[in-house]
Amino acid sequence: MRFLSHAVLILTVIVLAACSSTPKKTTPLPSQQVSRLKAMRLGFHLPIPVKGVKADQLTDTWGASRSAGRWHEGIDILAPRDSKVTSATEGLIASLQSNTLGGNVIWILGPAGSWHYYAHLEKSKRGLKVGDYVHAGDLIGYVGNSGNAQHTVTHLHYGIYLDGKGRGAVNPFPYLR
Ligand SMILES: [Zn+2]
C-alpha cells in the first residue's frame, strides 16, 4: 500500500513536470547550430525533396505568373497525396505553421543562411517541432494540396531563399538536377 502511494506521487510529479515544461509560443533557435549552419556552404546539387520523384520528372515552374500579380518563387513537384517529403538540406526546423496561401508549411534554416520553404503539405511529420535538427533526406512531412492549392493536384511547393526567410528567391530547379 505504501509502495502504491509512492508510485502515485511519483507519477503525479512527472505529469506536473511535463505540464510546466510545455514550450512557449516562440522557441529561439539554438544559436550554436545557427552559426555552424551559417558557416557551411550550400551545395549546388540537392536531393529531390519528395520520395519517389526522379530528376527527369521535374518541370521548371519557376517564374510562372500567379494571381494578384504574384509570380512563382519556387518549383512545384507533383506527387501522389501522402508521398514522403524529405529535407533537401540539413538544417533547423525554423517554423511550422498553417496559412491560407501555403497551407501547412515548413521553413528550414539551412547551410550558408539559406532558407527552404515546403508548402501545401498534407501534414508535417508527427512530433516534428521548431528547433529540431534535420539532415538531408530526413522525413519532414507528406505531400498534399493544402492552402491555395486545394483545387489543384497534390504537389510539394519547394522554395529556396538565399538572403533570409522569404528574401532572395532562387530557382530550385537547377539544384535538383
Ligand atoms: Zn508552387
UniProtKB/TrEMBL annotation:
<keyword id="KW-0732">Signal</keyword>
<dbReference type="InterPro" id="IPR016047">
    <property type="entry name" value="M23ase_b-sheet_dom"/>
</dbReference>
<dbReference type="Pfam" id="PF01551">
    <property type="entry name" value="Peptidase_M23"/>
</dbReference>
<dbReference type="GO" id="GO:0004222">
    <property type="term" value="F:metalloendopeptidase activity"/>
</dbReference>
<feature type="domain" description="M23ase beta-sheet core">
    <location>
        <begin position="72"/>
        <end position="165"/>
    </location>
</feature>
<protein>
    <recommendedName>
        <fullName>M23ase beta-sheet core domain-containing protein</fullName>
    </recommendedName>
</protein>
<dbReference type="InterPro" id="IPR050570">
    <property type="entry name" value="Cell_wall_metabolism_enzyme"/>
</dbReference>
<dbReference type="InterPro" id="IPR011055">
    <property type="entry name" value="Dup_hybrid_motif"/>
</dbReference>
<feature type="signal peptide">
    <location>
        <begin position="1"/>
        <end position="17"/>
    </location>
</feature>
